[in-house]
Fold:
Amino acid sequence: MGYRVGIDLGGTNIAVGVVDSAYRIIAHHSVPTGAEREASAVIDDIAAAVDAALRKVGLTTADCACAGIGSPGTCDSERGVVVRAYNLNWFDVPVCAILSEKLGIPVRLSNDANCAALGETVAGAARGCRNVVMITLGTGVGGGIIIGGSIYAGMHSAGAELGHILLKMDGELCTCGRRGCWEAYASATALCRQATAAAQEDPKSLLYGVPEMTGKRVFDAAEQGDETARRVVERYCEYVAAGLTDLVNALAPDMILLGGGISRQGERLLEPIRRYVAAHCFGGAQGAVPRIAAAELGNEAGIIGAAAL
Amino acid sequence: MGYRVGIDLGGTNIAVGVVDSAYRIIAHHSVPTGAEREASAVIDDIAAAVDAALRKVGLTTADCACAGIGSPGTCDSERGVVVRAYNLNWFDVPVCAILSEKLGIPVRLSNDANCAALGETVAGAARGCRNVVMITLGTGVGGGIIIGGSIYAGMHSAGAELGHILLKMDGELCTCGRRGCWEAYASATALCRQATAAAQEDPKSLLYGVPEMTGKRVFDAAEQGDETARRVVERYCEYVAAGLTDLVNALAPDMILLGGGISRQGERLLEPIRRYVAAHCFGGAQGAVPRIAAAELGNEAGIIGAAAL
Structure:
């Protein structure tokens, strides 16, 4: 009974892990989601993948206390329902009830960003912290809030849409339809757009005419002394840090974790961000400046966090 | 033992209330703070005011479970220390330990904005809500966060500096030293500044050359059909609502309460704000749109909230 199952349900793959009581993954099984099918067929495959993972270590669901699912989109954790997940094409799917009947154990649900934050808190970079904010810098800017060691998700589990706080009222148009959201400045997508625009003005830049801009490319060019890239990276770090400063002022977390592709830039990203937050947060360096670090668990955070729900 | 004492410690007055188990104030006593004196003299007066309030209803501290203090400035609730309160001239004052020894009952401490939010949650406009954000629109923009029915204050109780989230990066200079904070656009001070600037361009405006601008005056002129005042009020409501939208997206509270002088404008303020938040929050009207209302308890919220700590 000391084991738990974590399910990272993605638009492309279903990744299942069996974790022990120390939140170590002891078995793993992964299958394609096949999101073009009915939800019931996908849930059948989730149940089969759970059994497959357990068999690898000679266990059954009878050895497990519970299972947890991290799903994209809007999830209602209290009712166990995926309310809206566009890349699964799921609307109001009561996944917990269906899967719980198949597995014979309780099944819990939360948003994938929340699960990643919880995974890092129970077993990753934020171990031992009570109040944690995790920000994922990827195609968009995702967020998870841990308060008192548990996910904080607010009314209808709708909270922690942290990419959609304002950086500049009436500014850049965001994918959510609002103007000026943090995500429109601080996502990897935004960084590539900023770099492409700046390089267009500077034919001598290493980034001039680059067909497939990536965040890594921009950071690399800056490190190689490219002045345009350096200015773009400097400003981008200010955008990221300005939003983090808001979260420090509003929530005073013990720790802020950065995840997603851009977080692999490590200290090239973290050092300027730490400097900015300490200088700009309420009370300055005497204020409640939290530790700011990169997430540690990568894709495993979602599985471990789902298991810890 | 069913009674509690609430102390609203202000720069001008010390207001003490005795509350019953239903959080009704059954006795009240108020004395000037005399903040120019030593902290110990002020704390002596707090203790005397507590005794005076209790005597009015024939009680002593032996009838009370505990006392709570709402203080301005930065408070460390865990240690019971007022860390920095400029308008009391208090720095690192262990008020709970000193007062608890005088009264013979446990004494708790929180920031006054947090106490007001808690007071409204246990006995005011947010009764029955679990997650509440209260915003005070006054000289500045103050905030209190209630999560799961209790004050959320974060690391070193530094959280909920909600006036200091960004509305416009690099925008108006805020009193905290940062540029573009919500407070610099949404405080009563900011409204008066916006109205004075707009009226200067319009000699026909009712607000032209007004020597002592107040929030009420601007709202009244708008209601009387003054076009300049109408535009100022419309934009001001957008500023308030944009910050509230951020808090909805980040925290999805059940309810948002507005307090402070400007909140007395009631529906003239609330109706445009509700419309804006529903249109701009993540997921729009299908999102987690909370109830938005004016606080009910006025100055009593701080006393009741302190008693409920």
